């Protein structure tokens, strides 16, 4: 990559990490909010569902806005909105105000994935590698963000912690203002409407604004996507999102149940209200998310060397096999840790390959829209994986849960095969 491309990757990777830092710091803060606002877990659950729901469904209108205004302005708006929402959280005097602040976070964060991925897929020649580094940023936010939040809560009041969490978004936004996306756009595959001479249809530094977007143009672009077989890509990303949420939602508790009686690790006083964040299962959970960094890097490299949809066929088969091995592996710590970490690597290897597949099977003028649909599938429909996992664990058990995960992964492999055979590549 040249210097301009590296700056874009750094900007988007940092933004991606912050999106997931905020996303996963909210569950850590719930333990404080129950007492602070004298409320119930059920009431807070409704608030969190509102924020996460907007985070998922907002991706589609976010994708439309990307095709209208370009990627960079939307990413900057996302960062500003997330910083403002967490500042509002720190000042929230009542539960309804807290709910509004969390909803603002979900709405502003929802535009990030279509904006960031559209920018990377159209402005960096080594698309797979760039998506891999972008995924590494996200994984670092997923793994280290909630841990940092919990550690800060041990030393500082939660209002000060949430206000401090707004500062990294301000810093990344300030850096993003200095990133010239038009230099990269002129040397790569331009975003819709961008020109090598002026960087955009009107000479604006927008990161590829494409002009007017109306309901009819969205409908036209949607028909073009469907005609090329994008529904098959959408089916794959939905299965991928279901696997992701079903696997990760209750994973800390599952890991803790297995390791709790075998390993005694205590970082804080057992009487601390945050003690449950630091049991043995949490350590392994962070490790599973952290090794996903290697998966992201591996997936990016694979995407630059083979058709990404073929890589997905193999990886979903691996995820299916690992799901079936999870329960038998609980016999010893060594096998259990090995399978858990292998699942972490394989799960996150899928992501850059999946994103590269979306880019390959969507026209550049509808790239934002295509990623909007993609993240409705991953985070919107995929959110049902939390309900699925909870229902199976309540009515059956972990063994049945991992059989269902194996089936979901197998269906993902089938849909990736269908993409390879029946969909039409656009780049």
UniProtKB/TrEMBL annotation:
Residues 1-424 form the Major facilitator superfamily (MFS) profile domain. One of its GO terms (molecular function) is transmembrane transporter activity. It comes from the Archaea. Residues 190-211 are annotated as: Disordered. Its main location: membrane. GO terms for cellular component: plasma membrane. Residues 200-210 have a biased composition (Gly residues). InterPro entries: MFS, MFS_dom, MFS_Efflux_Transporters, MFS_trans_sf. The chain crosses the membrane at residues 41-66, 98-120, 132-154, 160-177, 224-244, 282-299, 311-327, 371-389, 401-423. It is found in: Cell membrane. Pfam families: MFS_1. Keywords: Cell membrane, Membrane, Transmembrane, Transmembrane helix. It is a multi-pass membrane protein. PANTHER family: CHLORAMPHENICOL EFFLUX PUMP RV0191 (PTHR43124:SF3), PURINE EFFLUX PUMP PBUE (PTHR43124). This is MFS transporter. It comes from Halorubrum ezzemoulense (Halorubrum chaoviator).
